[in-house]
Design goal:
Strand order of the largest sheet of chain A: 1-2
Protein name (chain B): Urea transport system permease protein
Membrane topology (chain B): Multi-pass membrane protein
Pfam family, one (chain B): BPD_transp_2
Strand content of chain B: under 5%
CATH architecture of chain A: Orthogonal Bundle
InterPro entries (chain B): ABC_transp_permease, ABC_transptr_urea_perm_UrtC, LivM-like
Number of domains of chain B: 1
Number of domains of chain A: 1
Number of helices of chain A: 11
Order of helices and strands of chain A: HHHHEEHHHHHHH
Structural class of chain B: mainly alpha
Helix content of chain A: over 70%
Number of strands of chain B: 2
Strand content of chain A: under 5%
Helix content of chain B: over 70%
Largest sheet of chain A: 2 strands, antiparallel
CATH topology of chain A: ABC transporter involved in vitamin B12 uptake, BtuC
Distance between the termini of chain A: 49 Å
Structural class of chain A: mainly alpha
Oligomer: heterodimer
Subcellular location (chain B): Cell membrane
Largest interface: A-B, 40 and 40 residues
Chain lengths: 289, 367
Amino acid sequence: MDVILNQLFAGLSMASILLMIALGLAIIYGAMGVINLAHGEFVMLGAYATWALQTFAGINIILALPIVFVAVALVGWIIEKVIVQRLYHRPLDTILATWGIGIILQQVVRLSVGAESRFVKGPDLLSGNTQFGGLIMSNYRLFVIAFSIAVLAATWVLMTRTEFGMRLRAVIQNRGISECYGIEANKVFSLTFAYGAGLAGIAGALITPLFSTIPTMGTGLVVDAFLVVIVGGLGSLLGAASAAVLIGEATALFSMLLNDTLGRIAVLAGIIVLIRFRPRGLFPAKTRH
Amino acid sequence: MTTRLFYDLAGLALFAVVIVLGVPALMGFDAFELNTFARYLALAIVALALALSWGGAGLLNLGQAATFGMGSYAMAMHLKLKASGDALPDFMGWNNVSELPLIWVPFHSLAFTLIAGLLVPAFIGGLIAIFMFRARIAGVFVAIITLAFLVAFQLVVIEQQGITGGQNGLTGLAPLELPGWSVDTYSLSFYYLAAGCLMLAITLGLYITHSKFGLILRAIREDADRTRFFGYNVANYQTAIFCISAALAGWAGMLYTLVLEFASPTYMSVSFSLAIVIWCAVGGRDSVLAAAVGAILVNLLEGKLSDIYVEGWNLMLGVTFVLVVMFMPRGLHGLLGDLTNLFRRGAGKRRGNRSAPTQTAKTGQEL
């Protein structure tokens, strides 16, 4: 019983990380139809920024979060302005261009920082474990779970309760009409892309104590995160959240029943079947056409 | 004979002269250089296989490396059995496999290996295609499903260490024995074998492009629904081109194993699969010949430049790729076409004919 509970917790912890990565991806995909394969590299940049802040300035992870968010969002904003904005009418080509951007970011980091694995210390405040009977939960992982829920809530508020969110939703529904009402769609898209990139940066910062920080760390994550988005349904925040939990838990449970690799294979197979039968995801956003 | 067919055949003839006569002469018949170039020729086949499905039918297959890997492993299994003689292949012993797995047994036969290297990828590709296209999956979802399949397939291959050699792949292979010819991969005749395979593949690709089958595929690419209303079974056509593309990729994989003398799960990695897409995009996705040239050029550059800047190469590749996608969406082939159009328009203007200024502006927006 304890084994199962611990495994469920591991799945939830993985889901919280997936959620934060997928959230940025979901917003970018939902708003612009851009499949951002460079998203994993934004996560990587966030991780390296955290490492740099801790090593050279002695700032711990929690305090680094806002700085990392702004820095990675800025990188995302520039990339959107220079490259992605020109490709909105060719969705398949955005896959290729963002993959190219990913290669560039990876190589820049490899050339400037080096390919060796970097170590980031978790915050002292959150070391140690919380124990409920046989269930042992690391405090840091609990913090990541809580934080990801907070990010989800903040994003929901941003999308539904602010003027920026309203503009974004207007542009998604009908770009032409929104522009007639004076909404600058290009500006909205740039900011949305920057926000998505910033979220990826935060995710990267938070996973530094859990993963090893290497230039290629993003590549594996982006495939998983993308599957979360597709499974969750386009443009649906709640869908992305439930899909993250579903995939995180499924991976954890299959890994326990079979082994890590077979668990991942089973989840991938499940996702392929799901896309086949529900290409719009489990919880597609309701839009009028 | 239409003009397009004429250009394609002229291009093929020129390409054939360069590959058959030009390259070996340029390399000074150096065995090592020829072997390196034979590797590029094998990669050109997989790039043109992708051009058939991506450029020809609008199906972006990000899992092309999986079918490439199947062909490569088929050949490697045959050569490994040959190298091991009557004994078990060495890595099986390390993994406590005491008997030859059933799946390995038929690979003793060369004929079976060659057929399996083509048909197994075609069959698996066909299964995925039927699975997707019957449900009318299109666009980015094709890319995502094939990508997920590739990731899962590579995991399976690495996981099944006892059968596939896991992370190490299959190494220590014997040379291929064709009837009356023990293939030395560092020789002119092997280079010509690779060149012959590529020529055959390009000819097949051009035949498909110019056939009615190719025309229907282009119709599907432009508007699947409308093609359906004309009474064509869209899913069957898409499945057929997927199978052909997969078989060609398997063929390329077999050749690749011969050149490198090992098979590795890295042939089935996501980055290798996207590299194939890059070659195809640089050359031009609409034309099988252009895709093949793209693969050769990019790999040639990689071979030359990565000697000088080991780390910088990938950076340059990334930058080039982004620029190509942004400004040359139809690759070098498209650039060539635009230039000829520009030239013709210039000539037309001098004669006072200003009727065709919008033609080239639209070309960048395809797909």
